[in-house]
Structure prediction request, 231 residues.
Amino acid sequence: MKIVKLAGISVLGLALVACNEGQNKDVSLDSDMDKVSYGMGLNIGKNFKQQDLEMNIDAIAAGMRDAMAGQQRLEDDVIKASAEAVRDREMEKQRALSDAQSQEGVAFLAENAKREGVNSTPSGLQYEIITQGSGEGESPKVTDVVSVHYHGTLIDGTVFDSSVERNQPAQFPLNAVIAGWTEALQLMKVGDKWKLYLPAEIAYGARSPSPKIPANSALIFEVELLDIKES
Prediction:
């Protein structure tokens, strides 16, 4: 869950509902100052979008205009109280979502473990072999750097990340990723492609690394080990 600053208050999660979305008024972008000003707004908007924040753009603009004019329509304590109310509502939503995600993940993995071809380990990792490489060579050690292609989804099939779709393999130290990956890749050899089913405990647990992955989510990855590089 992301933390953003709103009027000096830390607000967790989604903040304010956008109004008049898409009603962009004509604005001059001719001068250098026009372009710089637009760029500043663009960067702020990208930050909101990346964090999945829905903000009242008109209210933001009104606040900026008032600040530039040396005036303020709302007292600081009113803004603070509203920020805290938004935070409390969103935290409650996240708690409910986390509980639901946890229950769905446990139920999914319990059924998935019964399928033919699915292997389970004591940690709760489940995997099935899609393609087996030559079987030659060693498996990566926890201190090695590996190159992989992967495709990650939630248990409902929603894609949250994919090096395959980007057509760009990922490379990382094996001891710097989630526990489920560290465990599974040490069992694989170059050329292997496995489908991994990770309970939340060996994925991201009770935290949400991005708006696309709710807290307590069980995750599914198709992972192909392309290369092993010694650390």
Q: What stands out?
A: Strands lie at 3-6, 9-12, 119-120, 126-131, 145-154, 159-162, 170-173, 193-198, 219-229. The first helix runs from residue 32 to 50.
